[in-house]
TrEMBL record:
GO terms for molecular function: 4 iron, 4 sulfur cluster binding; coproporphyrinogen oxidase activity; metal ion binding. SMART domains: Elp3. It is found in: Cytoplasm. This is Heme chaperone HemW.
Amino acid sequence: MAMLTTPPLALYVHLPWCVRKCPYCDFNSHQPRGGPPPFSAYVDALLADLDQDLPLVWGRPVHSVFFGGGTPSLFPAADIDRFLQGAAARLRFAPGLEITLEANPGTAEHGRFEDYRAAGVNRISFGIQSFDDGCLQRLGRIHDSAEAERAVKLAQDAGIDNLNLDLMYALPGQDLAMAAADVERAVAIAPAHISHYQLTLEPNTLFAARPPERLPDDDLAWDMQEHCQAQLAAAGYAQYEVSAYAQRGRQCVHNLNYWRFGDYLGIGAGAHGKITLGHEQTILRRWKQRHPTAWLASAGTPAGIGGDDRIAPPRRPFEYMLNALRLLEGFRLEQFEACTGLPREAIARPLAMAMERGWLEARDGRILPTALGGRFGNDVIQLFMDEDGD
Ligand SMILES: C[S@@+](CC[C@H](N)C(=O)[O-])C[C@H]1O[C@@H](n2cnc3c(N)ncnc32)[C@H](O)[C@@H]1O
Ligand code: SF4
C-alpha cells in the first residue's frame, strides 16, 4: 500500500445569489426574493462554517481562495474584506496566494474593483459568455457586450491584471464565424486566462425543459471547438485543460489544484470539500446544506453539514482520473500513489487497456491523454471505475 500524503490545500467559498437566474444554469444560484440578500449575516455564517471545518486542516497553508457562485460580485467589497480578514486570522494563508472572485459584468460599478483589490482579491473571473448581443439575449444575460467590455476595463484600470473571461460556444443561433468573433474580441482584451465552455443543456434548467431554437449540432460544435482552440493558440493562449486556456504561467492555481486531486475546504451553501486525513489514511468528502436559507440557519452547527463521506480505496482511481485526465499534462504515477494511497499496480489493467486503444500515452515520465483520448474522455475514465461499480 502506498502512503496517502496531504496535497496542497485550497479554500472554496460559495456565494449563492444572482440578479436573475440564467435559463441554462444548474449551479446552486438563486434570485433573491423580497429585498436584497443578507450579505452581512452570510459572512458571519461563512466564518462559523469555516470554524467548524478548521480541525480538518490545522496548520496547513492555503494556496488559493475562490469566491464562486452564484454571483460573488453582488457582495459589497466591505463584506468580502471582512470575510478575508476573518479567514486569514483562522487559516495560514501562503504568501502571494491567488484570490479569485467571480463577477457578472452586469454588476460592475465604478470603484468596486479597487475595493475588492484592497480587500485582497487579485484575480477576477468574468462571466462574459459571448460578445454578440443577440446571443446574450437568448442566454437571458443581464448585460450586453458593451457593458461586458466596460466591466473588464474597470477591473484592469483598478490594477487587477490577472483576469479570466468565461466564454460559451455552441450557443442558440451561433455559427462558426460568430464563435470565432467571440474569441477574437476576448483575445483583443488580452486577459491572462480564457475559459471556453461548450453550452450544455443541464437537467432541471429552463433550457432542458424547453430547448432553445437553432442550437448548433454536434459536428458544428466540434468545428467551433477546433477552430477556437487554434485561434487561442495563435494568440498565445495554451490549452491546459478541457476548457481552460492561459498565457504562459497564468494558469488558474485554484482550478489546477482540483484537477491535480488536491485538497479543498468548501464553505457556504452547498459547497463541497475534499480533505486528505493523513493520520487516518483516508480522504473525506464533506458538503454543506444546499439551500441558502437552510444553510444560513444552520452554518457552523452539525445540521449545516449536508453529509460526510470517505472515498473508499476502490473508488479512488476513478475519482483521480475524473480530474487528472482533464489536464493535457496528465499525471505522474508517483502523484497518483501519493494522492490516492494506492500502489500503481491498482491501475495497471485499465491503464494498459487505455494505452492499447490509443487513448492514453506515456511520455517523459507522465501519463497523458492522446488527441483521441481527449475526444473519448468519458470512456477513458469509465475504464477506471471499480469493477463492482462502487
Ligand atoms: C458559476 S458561473 C460564474 C460567473 C457568473 N455567475 C456569471 O454567470 O456571470 C461559471 C461559468 O460556467 C459557465 N456555465 C454555466 N452554465 C453552463 C452551461 N450550462 N454550459 C456551459 N457552461 C456553463 C459559464 O461560462 C459561467 O460563466
Ligand atoms: S449569473 Fe452565473 S451563476 Fe447566476 S444564474 Fe447566470 S450563469 Fe448561473
